[in-house]
Amino acid sequence: MGNRFDSFFSLGRQARFTIALMMLGAVVTALIGIMRFSGGMIDWQVESSWMLGGTLLLTVVALVHATSYWSFRKAFELLACAFVISIPAEALGTRVGLPHGASYHYHEAIGPRLFGTVPLFIPFAWFVLLYSPLLLLDLVQPCGRARLDPWIRIPFAALIIIASDLYLDPLAVESGAWTWGRTGSWFGVPFANFVGWGLVAILVYSAFFVLGAPPPTSSREARWLRWTNFSAGGILGGAALYCLGDRIEQGWVALAAGALLTLITLILWHFIGRIHQTHQSQQVES
After folding, report:
1. Helices (H), 211-247
2. Which of 238, 261, 229, 206 is nearest to 129 (CA)?
């Protein structure tokens, strides 16, 4: 344990600051979620500001983290891609139901809004959600010279996004953040919605990778940043579990399903990486 702490304190100032900011942001956001969105009816005229503030806090934290892990340019590119693609996708979803398979609308008190229907916090939330899967995939990818084509990351990262929606959407629907025009069988959410989330994620990731895929790095600072992202996700997941259990009967099932799909995705990703690594080693030897 001592060696691990020594390794942490030997990191550069930027890395230590980023790690501390990430953990602080996760704890503060988790506390906001537990205190403001668990139990009872929600007054969205009041809570709308808390939701926007919490999302902006996580966005700043994720931007700083992505700048340390990649670069400011790559961090901004992911944010820009999230805005450019998620806003029209959400505008279409609220009007005609595409690409989510059914129309929906946000609570009228949630604002401010873009184009009259999309709350301002939505594209920022997409950026935060889209960033973490890329780090999770780097966390479990085998090390060595053989690396999977960066484009292979897209469907796996999109699956992790779908996994997160397995519990985020039921929580949002139960709290009244948005309402579906057609009730679905997954805690009131239509299954087609998860396909829509996957499509939006694939489009954002594709645009981001067209601009230049950030190569995974095995540096010591990068490893600490990846584990910090994983730990922060655990803190926020714990807050989501508390709110789900408090608001929805057997709501923990939704989070368990999301965690299971994430775990399966990461195991499959690691397994494919191992096969690729072995194949490349055999080619070099021959």
Report:
1. 220-247
2. 229
Please state the φ and ψ torsions of residue 34, each to the nearest 5 degrees: -65, -45
E runs forming strands in 57-103? none
63-84 b/e with 16+ CB inside 10 Å = b? bbbbbbbbeeebbebbbbbbbe
Angle of the 192-210 helix axis to the 121-140 helix axis, nearest 10:
80
| pLDDT tens, the chain, 286 aa long | 556 666 777 788 899 999 999 999 999 999 999 998 887 789 999 999 999 999 999 999 999 999 999 999 999 999 999 999 999 999 999 989 888 888 899 999 999 999 888 999 999 999 999 999 999 999 988 765 456 777 889 999 999 999 999 999 999 999 999 999 888 999 999 999 999 999 999 999 999 999 998 876 778 899 999 999 999 999 999 999 999 999 998 899 999 999 999 999 999 999 988 887 777 767 666 6
> Residues with Cβ < 8 Å from 3, sequence gap 6 or more?
none
Cα–Cα distance measured from residue 218 to residue 196, given in angstroms and rounded to the nearest whole number: 33
Does the pTM exceed 0.85?
A: yes
